[in-house]
Write a structure and sequence with these properties.
Elements: H1 11-15, E1 35-40, H2 42-50, H3 52-60, E2 67-70, H4 90-96, E3 101-105, H5 108-111, H6 118-133, E4 139-143, H7 161-178, E5 182-184, H8 185-188, H9 208-221, H10 242-262, H11 267-270, H12 290-296, H13 298-320
Parallel strand pairs: 1-2, 1-3, 3-4, 4-5
Length: 322
């Protein structure tokens, strides 16, 4: 996802003036040292590049030492989450990272198949939630944002919103029946503040403005409301306020490290079906596999990046109170 356009809405800076909520009925309260796993499709994948949701959460909870791990993959749906040979399944990933909270967003891609699959969608989503609940009961369902009209010659996905709304109703019902917190991004789209900016690149993929709006919906549902004036990003998509800008840059760098660790460039040699190849092993001692050891070097780098993000979040909060 690109951050090229000027944006009148930047949630991160607004949040640094807010106090932590004491908790609200029906909405999950984040705790110190929570690790949030992001589960979904391409919208969550794009968060790796934009960093807006994590930036907003860190500014909202500067002393909580939250950790966010993006486990989404392009093409993931409630029906299937295909992975490479021997690659951990999605539930195994959620368990392995030690997620204490899972943010789940599905429905947009599935809605493109039409209303005929609503029953399949409900059943498969329910099965996935049941599996995730065995790892952690703290699951937050997030409805997908509405489609937006795209400029020609792209297809007008906005025409599919009536069907998407039916899928959203299913998600709301799943949240009600399972007593899960629900964050309704679909319902919040009409309140999009960037009227002069597009929410999406193509009717589906979020722009930086759209991602900021989606992040605003999430943290507002967690109990935060804006108490400060919005600011604009410059033409390069850079946040004007120093502390929040530095924090977002650090988040994006940490997410780059995480992406390279969790999505290695050649999984087949690391853990797939080519681990016996000579090029996967030390040329001096074929019994030694160099690739796994090399990949483990990412972990201390990610941990160090997280600590730096914590420090910048506290600095931003302190700066805002001066």
């Amino acid at each position: 996802m690109s951050s090229r356009c000027p944006i009148a809405l930047w949630l991160g800076v607004m949040l640094i003036f807010l106090k932590p909520p004491c908790g609200r009925a029906g909405v999950i309260t984040l705790r110190t040292n929570d690790l949030i796993g992001l589960v979904g499709g391409s919208t969550w994948v794009a968060e790796n590049e934009s960093g807006v949701l994590e930036t907003a959460l860190k500014l909202a909870y500067p002393a909580h030492a939250l950790r966010i791990r993006n486990l989404a993959k392009e093409g993931d749906t409630v029906y299937a989450q295909p992975r490479e040979v021997n690659y951990p399944t999605l539930p195994e990933q959620v368990s392995k990272v030690g997620a204490t909270v899972v943010f789940v967003q599905f429905g947009q891609t599935e809605a493109l198949e039409g209303a005929a699959r609503l029953t399949d969608f409900k059943q498969n989503y329910g099965k996935l939630l049941e599996t995730l609940s065995r790892i952690t009961p703290r699951i937050v369902l997030i409805t997908p944002p509405a489609f937006e009209r795209a400029p020609p010659p792209l297809p007008d996905l906005e025409l599919r919103n009536p069907v998407l709304e039916q899928y959203v109703r299913v998600i709301r019902e799943l949240a009600r029946v399972r007593n899960l917190p629900l964050i309704d991004e679909f319902a919040a789209v009409p309140n999009f503040g960037g009227s002069t900016h597009r929410r999406t690149l193509d009717g589906l993929q979020l722009t930086a403005a759209g991602a900021a709006h989606a992040a605003a919906v999430v943290v507002r549902a967690l109990g935060f409301e804006s108490l400060a004036a919005s600011v604009e990003l410059d033409e390069g998509g850079v946040l004007g306020a120093g502390p929040a800008r530095k924090l977002r840059a650090a988040v994006i760098e940490k997410d780059r490290l995480w992406f390279e660790f969790v999505r290695p460039t050649n999984w087949a040699f690391l853990g797939g079906d080519r681990t016996d190849q000579l090029s996967s092993r030390d040329h001096r001692d074929p019994k030694v596999r160099w690739f796994p050891k090399e990949m483990e070097q990412f972990q201390p780098l990610i941990a160090e990046a997280d600590r730096g993000i914590d420090s910048l979040a506290r600095e931003a909060a302190t700066t805002s109170l001066r």
